[in-house]
Structures are given as structure tokens and as C-alpha cells.
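Technical annex B. To support the medicinal chemistry partners, we prepared a structural model of the target in complex with (R)-mevalonate, based solely on the information shown next.
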Amino acid sequence: MESIPKNRLFALHWLQPAALCYTFLMIKESAVTAFAPGKVILCGEHAVVYGQPAIALPVFREQAKAEVLLTPGKPFTIDLPDIGAAFTLAEAPAAEPLARVARLTLARLKVEPPPARLTIHSTIPIASGMGSGAAVATALVRALSRFLSVQLPPAEVSALVYEGERLWHGTPSGIDNTVIAYGRPVWFQKEAPPRPFHTAIPFTLVVADSGVAGVTKDAVAGVRRRWQADRVTYDGYFVAVGEVVREIYRRLTSGTLVGVGALLDENQRLLAAMGVSHPALEQLIAAGRAAGALGAKLCGAGLGGNCLALVEAERAEAVAAAMRRAGARRTIITRVESRQKEART
Ligand code: MEV
């Protein structure tokens, strides 16, 4: 990475108003890059909003990437070429999620917006349940703080990103920002510190995109409306999901996959009962099971987006092909190792 020549830094230092001086002193590189993975929720989505545990996994095959480039004399700008959007931080509305995350990050670092352009690219499909918003915001926080020569710990990155999640999703549990910021499998329960863990047995998932956009905010609001109308039934669903999650965690951490597929199927049955499945997802799930998946369920908010199938590694390609034939727009095969390799961040 290119360093800023000392004389340039010195000149910039004197050209800026006093409030920016401190910011400039923190800039050591004129360009930095940071990454964040996508995620899938293995089990427990929706019930997690009501206090039950859930397990989420990072997916490194899909990533968000943020680059910060020094642009002397220009205002701090966020550029999102993938969706054809760009705005200066000064002009962005308070409710713009990425602007909010950027402002909070700068406030946390106690600096003024630097004269820089922050460009974000992502391969994570939007509205697919793979945490695209949280990943983009995580890459932003990492790149911006790194540009200002600060390495924030995962808990702080996660807390900053959560503030963007609230604007995107309404009442999120915080699971997406947590698993993406930690980059490890996470046992997550609201109001409790997240527990990153290692599975004692590696396993393979096929993640299949239904191609139907599922909006998290709508899915979460729908479950809330139905819960308010029939608390007894919905509390029953949430508790049952919690039991499934505990059982899956017990098996993964004690090194057996026996019964995990059936538990995922049970989780799917409960999600469908909550009203967050979709015919396109049901079709992919049925095709995956028929092709030999050990179990399958939607993952994320539902109403579209992705589903996942637990497979024996040697069946992965066949299951993925069957899901594509059943209408999946694309499939990803992801392996969860018993010790997750160090990821680029
Ligand atoms: C979305 O990825 C997961 C949900 O459980 C919502 C949340 O936890 O905030 C549906």
C-alpha cells in the first residue's frame, strides 16, 4: 500500500482547518482496503428476535470490500458503484444507514470526516438473507478506522454496524452484524455476549438463492403482527425453535452430525408455520432433500432469499444441481471447518 509522502502530509496539515489537523495526523496510508464476509443463519432466525438462541456462520465465498482513498480538498464521499449511488457524508440524510455508520465510526474515533472517497463493492446478493447490508457496513467501518490507523475489536465493529441494521431492518436481533464482525460461527442470544465457537465436526452446506427478493423488515414485521395476534401459538413456535437450536449446537460441538438434518427440517417446519417461507423456497428445499440432502431450510428472514441444505461433501454437487434445476438462481457450496481458517478482514 502506498504511503503518503511526509512533505504532502505536512502541506495538507497546514491547508486544513484546525479541526481536521488531528484527523490528518491519523492518516498513515493514502489508500486502504478492508473486507467482510456474507453470512447464513444455520438455525434459529426469527425466534432469535424473541430471545431464543440462533447459530450463524460466516460465508467467505461472498464478500463486501471497502476501499478508502485520500482525495485532498474533497469532502468525504461514499460511493456505491454496484447500485449506481454516491453521496457526500455532509449531504446524506440522518436516516441513510451507511452514512449513519460512517458518522458513528468517526465520532467513536473522535475525528472529523477525512477528505477521502470510500468505495464499496459486494458480491453478496441483496435481499437474499446473506447479510449484505451488515457486510457492506462492516467493510466500511473496518476500512474507515484502518484509514485512520485504528484497529477496532469485533465487538465495537459489530455495535457500530448494528446502528445501520436498525435503520435497514427495524428491530433486528443483532445476529447479522455479530457473525459478520466476528467472522466465526456464533451462538447468538439477545442481551447476552455472543459466543463464537468452533464446530467439532466439519460439515458442508449448499446455499441456494430462490431469486425472490425477501425484505427482512417486512418478514420481521409480519411475524411481529402475527405474534401480537396470537401470542400463545407464536411463543410456542419460538420455544420449539430454541430447543432445535440447542440440540444442533450440542451435536456440532460434541462432534456428531447424526440427526442434525432432521433438526434443520423441523426448524423449516416451524418457520413455514410462522408464515415466512415461500413457494419458491419450498420447491428448492424439496429438490435438495430429494437429491440426498440430510436436511434443508430457508436461511435468514425468508419470504424469498436463500435456503440451505446440509449435505455429505460428496453429494454437494448433485444437490446443488438439483436445486438449480428446481429454479435456484445460483448455488454456493460452503464448507464449515472444525477450525475456521483466518479470514481476510
Ligand atoms: C435476519 O437475517 C434474521 C432474522 O432473525 C432477523 C434478526 O435476527 O434480526 C429474521
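Notes passed to the chemistry partners:
The pocket of (R)-mevalonate is lined by residues 41, 45-46, 48-49, 129, 169, 172-173, 175-176, 216, 219-220, 300-301 (CB under 6 Å).
The domain at 199-344 is CATH 3.30.70.890 (Alpha-Beta Plaits).
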